[in-house]
From TrEMBL:
Organism annotation: Musca domestica (House fly)
GO molecular function per UniProt: serine-type endopeptidase activity
Keywords carried by this UniProt record: Disulfide bond, Hydrolase, Protease, Secreted, Serine protease, Signal, Zymogen
GO BP terms in the entry: proteolysis
Name of the molecule in the record: Trypsin 3A1
Signal peptide: 1-19
SUPFAM superfamilies: Trypsin-like serine proteases
Subcellular location: Secreted
Gene: LOC101887910
Gene Ontology, cellular component aspect: extracellular region
């Protein structure tokens, strides 16, 4: 069992309050062959960012405000040294183009432990300039129910297989379906406790999943051309295994924590 990150790191930062809904005028490009996915352009996923340590991609993240990035706590092991981290936004590549902004502050959940509360906020040293390639994403509503087998989308620059540690230089995405939480608990019984603060998603037949290097990145739902952030890539057993769906931090359970954190980071 491991978090889906190439190098362990901790980042915490805060930002302004939730974004307005992203309405996409185009659909995701279903071409080409993350695991079992397709290469894509950042304009289809403008909220996606690469979190970097010493100019090297380590995790994904999501823009939730002009100077706020949401990611996983396990990505930011050096959260007390934000100067080690930066964020690349507005690029389909993790190593070039777009804009790179240093982290100013980092805040991880105070109760993060054993993959529980695997969530963190990064406050940027300067605000992002929104464009076709950089946009904030709103969060899944606190009271909205995510039905089992809902189609979701996950993106990132992670490995394309658990046995191939090289991250992808180009942004990729794939589709997964939300899993029944109790069945997920049973699958992970000997691995990790699955709580109400987590959600599971994968493919019944396996072969589609987030992987190493995708940690902290977005799991999103789309409805009537509106995209909302449902989960944060957290951990799993291998990548794309039918018996082990990927596990994500359930964003809707952290609205209160995020509001408090953002106020602290002002």
């Amino acid at each position: 069992m491991s978090g889906k990150v190439t190098t362990f790191i901790f980042l915490l930062i805060t930002a302004t309050v939730w974004a307005t809904p992203i309405k996409l005028t185009t659909t995701f490009p279903y071409e080409g062959r993350i695991v079992g996915g397709w290469e894509t352009d950042i304009s289809y996923f403008p909220y996606q960012v690469s979190i970097q340590q010493l100019n090297t991609h380590v995790c994904g993240g999501s823009v939730i405000g002009e100077d706020l990035i949401l990611t996983a706590a396990h990505c930011l092991l050096r959260y007390d040294n934000p100067q080690y981290y930066s964020v690349r936004a507005g690029s389909s590549y993790s190593f070039r183009d777009g804009v790179v902004i240093p982290a100013k502050a980092i805040k991880i959940h105070q109760n993060y432990k054993n993959n529980e509360h695997d969530i963190a906020v990064i406050k940027l040293a300067m605000p992002l300039v929104y464009s076709e390639k950089i946009k904030a994403i709103p969060l899944w509503n606190e009271t909205q129910i995510l039905e089992d087998n809902t189609q979701l989308w996950v993106s990132g620059w992670g490995s394309q297989a658990s046995w191939y540690p090289q991250v992808s230089p180009v942004l990729r995405y794939t589709s997964v379906n939300s899993s029944n939480l109790e069945k997920c608990r049973q699958a992970y019984t000997s691995v990790n406790n699955i709580t109400e603060n987590m959600l599971c998603a994968g493919a019944t037949e396996g072969g589609r999943d987030s992987c190493q290097g995708d940690s902290g990145g977005p799991l999103v739902a789309r409805h009537q051309n509106t995209t909302t952030l449902v989960g944060v890539v957290s951990f799993g057993v291998g990548c794309g295994r039918a018996e082990y769906p990927g596990v994500y931090t359930r964003v809707q359970n952290y609205h209160k924590w995020l509001n408090q954190t953002i106020n602290e980071l002002k």
